[in-house]
Amino acid sequence: MYFEMGADGQAKVFSILKVLNFLSLTLATMIVLAACSVQAPQSGATLYRENCQVCHGRTGAGDGPNVGDLPIAPANLRLLAEANGGVFPTEQVMIEIYGYRGKDLDALMPEFGPVLDSPQVIWTAADGREIPTPSALITLAQYLETLQN
Ligand code: HEC
User: Membrane-crossing residues (predicted)?
Assistant: First the structure.
């Protein structure tokens, strides 16, 4: 069977090739970035600035530049301890960041599990439970604790 491709068809094939080329470059870049992030653990301040500040604001008050685009205001992260009787709710906060929140809220608060993928360490809860936890998640939660009013 003979199939003749018109100029239009050729243009389509060409643009598909361009997309594939772009995707492979993107993938290569991602692999290099992933390899880099393995060695150097980031500080809590850096993790916060890179992943949270756009919505929650520089000081955690819920006033980041993205606020206007969201249907729900980002939480004021400076009030987490106050809302919990003066005790910073570390475990609850880590669970929320890690992405175990209700499905209907997924669209609002992105899941940071992959971003915070880091070596697991044992984190000991107030009641003595020992929970294997990504170290970057603990670092970030400790940083949030320093932002409390
Ligand atoms: C795209 C905007 C956006 C980004 C980025 C974002 N958040 Fe949020 N966050 C929200 C919104 C909106 C809410 C409140 C609604 C909800 O619960 O989903 C929220 C809620 C929270 C809560 C729950 C607060 C409470 O009162 O229980 C915590 C904790 C939190 N964010 C921490 C973080 C951390 C830490 C990061 C960075 C790793 C982050 N957020 C990044 C939008 C964002």
Answer: 20-40
Q: What pLDDT score was predicted for residue 13? A: 60
Render pLDDT for 7-44 as a digit per residue (tens, 0 to 9).
666 666 666 556 556 666 666 766 666 665 556 789 99
Inter-residue contact 78 to 59 (CB < 8 Å): yes
Ligand 1: list residues with CB < 6 Å.
51-52, 54-56, 66, 70, 72, 74-75, 77, 93, 96-97, 105, 108-110, 112, 140
The answer to whether 62 and 149 have CB atoms below 8 angstroms apart is no
pLDDT 10s digits, 67-92? 888 888 899 999 999 999 999 999 99
Measured at the CA of 3, the angle between CA 2 and CA 6, to 5 degrees, comes to: 145
CA of 127 to the centre of ligand 1 (A): 26
pLDDT at 123 over 90: yes
DSSP 46-90: HHHHHHTHHHH-TTSSS--TTGGG-SSPPP-GGGTTGGGTTS--H
pTM: 0.76
Cα separation values, 56 from 67, 73, 84, 105, Å: 8, 9, 19, 16
